[in-house]
Structure formats: structure tokens, C-alpha cells
Write a structure and sequence with these properties.
Oligomer: single chain
Number of helices: 10
Strand order of the largest sheet: 8-7-9-6-10
CATH topology of the largest domain: D-Maltodextrin-Binding Protein, domain 2
Radius of gyration: 19 Å
Helix content: 25-40%
CATH superfamily of the largest domain: Periplasmic binding protein-like II
Largest sheet: 5 strands, mixed
Strand content: 15-25%
Structural class: alpha/beta
Number of strands: 10
Number of domains: 2
Distance between the termini: 12 Å
CATH architecture of the largest domain: 3-Layer(aba) Sandwich
């Protein structure tokens, strides 16, 4: 849940990152700087789904967008698997594949422009960007500034070594890896640890790492008992591990991801209809499954669907 830059798991930007330790690199091959790739050497790459322009939906685009023939999209990276740079520096990821498909439905292209996370919404308000795409959590507070088109449900998800048993609601005395400066590192796991000590039980030994790759590798190597991250981040890590790690418990504290657009713009209903078209016709599921994040699929896209 990307509430703001310091809550990076929501990543942390989830989702620069530091290369994993050499020993860990032998477990998850080819770890590298997350500014250059997803940091894992994984062969998971972009997917292009079969979808064409839908005239009835495209007709709802603002004149500025239809005349330009493109959506200008503000994005902040890295946040694997949602948005990050692949080989050659191209911005790729789950979010990117979805927006590319949305653009096809609307009969335009998507032009991605990098920006600081905190500057994307102001740039959308100013008209510099048509929309934002950076794993934004749709919140009531943000809806005062911009409208949101929801497309995914993300929460917190723990992982454990395959075959082990860790209960996120009773992890007292366990070693738990988190990425530094994420919601999990600053709020979620510390709150669980405090509950342990108040109950007279051992605190959780919170192990903070500079990058999510390092946190994941620590779990793969057995240096920690579990890790906590945003649900799409954890799902992606599990898929990359090829059976070495698995979910620990269910996803909790879920909230919708949304695309921020200017208040009152006709782009919001056009985007909502395009997202819903992809959901209804299976292309959205195809993309999510490809990236291993299908657990957060939603049935209905909403305009301003914040829970809190």
C-alpha cells in the first residue's frame, strides 16, 4: 500500500535499492540494482494481451487525450513487480502491462514519465500527467485532491520457508524480515511485536533490509523465520523462489489500488470502463496471473472506491 514515499512497501518503493549479499545471490540468481531490473534475474517479463480498441469506450476520452493519441502517465520506480526497469532501462511490470492494455481499449498509446512519488498527484492536478500509475492506495484523503479508478486490491502478506509454519498473528520470538521504511517495517510488524511484549511474550526480532530482494533472500537462506511485505510483492517473491518459500497466513489489511486522475475529468469513467472491460473479458486475469499477483483481482472497477 503506497500511502506515501516513506511507506515503501506499499513498498517501498515496493516496492535505490542495494544489491543482495553475495551469498544470497547464489540462491536467487543474478541479484542486481533494482533501478536496473526487478533485482532477481528472473525471466518474468512483459506480457502483451490480445485486445483491440473499443469505440464506445474510447469515445469518452477527453479531447486533449484523443487528439494527442496518448495517455501521459506519471510513474515512480522501482516497485517490483508493479513498476520497475527491465533490461535496457525500459519501464515494465504488472501495472505497466495493465495500463498498456487499457490504452489499447481506448485506442491510444501510453507514455510513461518518471517522477518522485510525492509529485505525481500534484502533476496530475496541474495537467502535466493525464494519470498516475504507481501502486497508489485509493484513500478518502487523497480523493479530496484527485479522483481514483480502482483496479486491484492489495494488502499485507507474510511468507515462510516451504514446509514451515509461522502464524503472523502469533509470531512472538520469531525473526521477521522487512524492507526498511515500509509500512510493514514502521507500523505493522512493530505493532505485532508490541502486542507480544504486552502479553508477556518475547518480542518479534525485526530484521530490516535495504531492499526487498535482501529480505526475500534472508528468508530463502533460513536467516529469518518469515518476511512481511505488500501482497503483490510477496506473491511475486514466492513465484520467483520456485518453491523455496510459500504464503504464511492470509492477506490482511487490504485496500484498493487506483489510478489518480484530475477531479471531475471524463478520463475517469473512460478508464473505469476500460479496466472493467479487461476484467470482464479475462485479459486482466491473464496479466495478473503472468506476474503471480492474481490474489488481488477485483470483480468491479470503481471511481473513488476508498475504504478509509
Amino acid at each position: 500500500m503506497r500511502f506515501h514515499r516513506s511507506n515503501r512497501t506499499h513498498a517501498v518503493r515496493l516496492m535505490g535499492l542495494v544489491a543482495a549479499a553475495a551469498a544470497a545471490m547464489t540462491v536467487v540468481a543474478g541479484c542486481s540494482n533494482d533501478d536496473e531490473s526487478d533485482g532477481t534475474g528472473t525471466d518474468i517479463g512483459p506480457i502483451s494481451v490480445d485486445v483491440a480498441k473499443v469505440d464506445d469506450i474510447a469515445a469518452g476520452l477527453p479531447e486533449k487525450v484523443s487528439k494527442a493519441g496518448k495517455l501521459v502517465v506519471g510513474v515512480n520506480i522501482p516497485y517490483s513487480p508493479n513498476e520497475f526497469k527491465g533490461p535496457g532501462g525500459k519501464i515494465i511490470g504488472f501495472d505497466v502491462d495493465v495500463v498498456n492494455a487499457v490504452a489499447k481499449v481506448l485506442g491510444v498509446s501510453a507514455e510513461y514519465r518518471e517522477a518522485d512519488f510525492a509529485k505525481i498527484i500534484p502533476a496530475v492536478q496541474a495537467g502535466t500527467f493525464d494519470m498516475g500509475m504507481s501502486s497508489f492506495t485509493d484513500t478518502k484523503e487523497r480523493e479530496k485532491q484527485v479522483d481514483f479508478v480502482t483496479y486491484y486490491s492489495a494488502g499485507v502478506q507474510w511468507a515462510q520457508q516451504s514446509g514451515k509454519s509461522v502464524d503472523p498473528s502469533n509470531a512472538c520470538g520469531k525473526k521477521v524480515a522487512v524492507q526498511a521504511d515500509t509500512f510493514e517495517a514502521t507500523d505493522e510488524v512493530p505493532a505485532k511485536s508490541e502486542a507480544c511484549t504486552k502479553a508477556g511474550k518475547p518480542a518479534i526480532a525485526i530484521q530490516k533490509y535495504d531492499s526487498q530482494d535482501e529480505a526475500t533472500n534472508a528468508l530463502v537462506l533460513g536467516k529469518v523465520d518469515a518476511m512481511s511485505a505488500d501482497s503483490p510483492v510477496t506473491a511475486y517473491a514466492i513465484k520467483k523462489s520456485k518453491g523455496k518459500i510459500e504464503p504464511a497466513g492470509e492477506i490482511f489489511d487490504s485496500a484498493p489500488y487506483g489510478y489518480p486522475v484530475a477531479k471531475g475529468t471524463p478520463l475517469a469513467p473512460a478508464l473505469q470502463k476500460a479496466v472493467q472491460y479487461l476484467i470482464d473479458n479475462g485479459q486482466f486475469k491473464e496479466i495478473a496471473t503472468h506476474w503471480g499477483v492474481e490474489a488481488g483481482l477485483i470483480e468491479k472497477s470503481l471511481i473513488n472506491g476508498a475504504i478509509n
